[in-house]
Amino acid sequence: MPLSTAASPLPVEPFRTPSARLSLRQVDTSLTRTGPDGAWWPRTHDLAHELCELADVLDPLWGRITHVAANPRHWPATLHGTIVVNDHEVRVDWFAPGLNPHRILLQSYSAGHWDLLVVPPRTAAPSAARLMTAASAGSGSRRRPWPRG
């Protein structure tokens, strides 16, 4: 009796190019953190949508994002609580009013926490590039590379 070797077709998954505009500081375990771990330039003020794109890049590098602390000044206040990001729940809390509104803190159960400078979405490309480079350079400079306000 002849043996059938017909293979079933492989499942096809849609390819999604990560589109998060992100610049990360090189990890150096011998130094104490002195500034942000990098910079993120979201396209909109829609935190739920933007976190999906950010998680596409960061989850494979840092582990699944489980908790986010952001300043409500730049994100809609209705997102406070738990949201779904790429098929898993992420807790969103707001910063205290005195903390830098241009930062976002990300936590992962498997790898710790990260502090990213948030470049406002409407920032001109040359300014955003300069801010992202400064935030990820790790120069230890005490100058603030992010905009105030």
Description of the structure:
The chain is of the alpha/beta class. The protein has 2 helices and 7 strands. It has helices at 47-62, 125-137, and strands at 22-24, 38-40, 65-70, 81-85, 88-94, 103-108, 112-118. A 7-stranded mixed sheet has the order 1-2-7-6-3-5-4. Strand 6 and strand 7 form a beta hairpin. The longest helix is centred in the middle third of the chain and has 16 residues, at 47-62. It is globular, with a radius of gyration of 19 Å. It starts with 21 loop residues before the first strand and ends in a 12-residue tail after the last helix. 26% of the residues are buried.
What keywords describe this structure?
seven-stranded mixed β-sheet, 2 helices, 149 residues, alpha/beta
Mean residue pLDDT: 78
Radius of gyration, taken over Cα atoms and rounded to an integer in Å: 19 Å
**Biggest sheet strand line-up:** 1-2-7-6-3-5-4
Proportion of β residues? Answer: 15-25%
Helical fraction equals: 10-25%
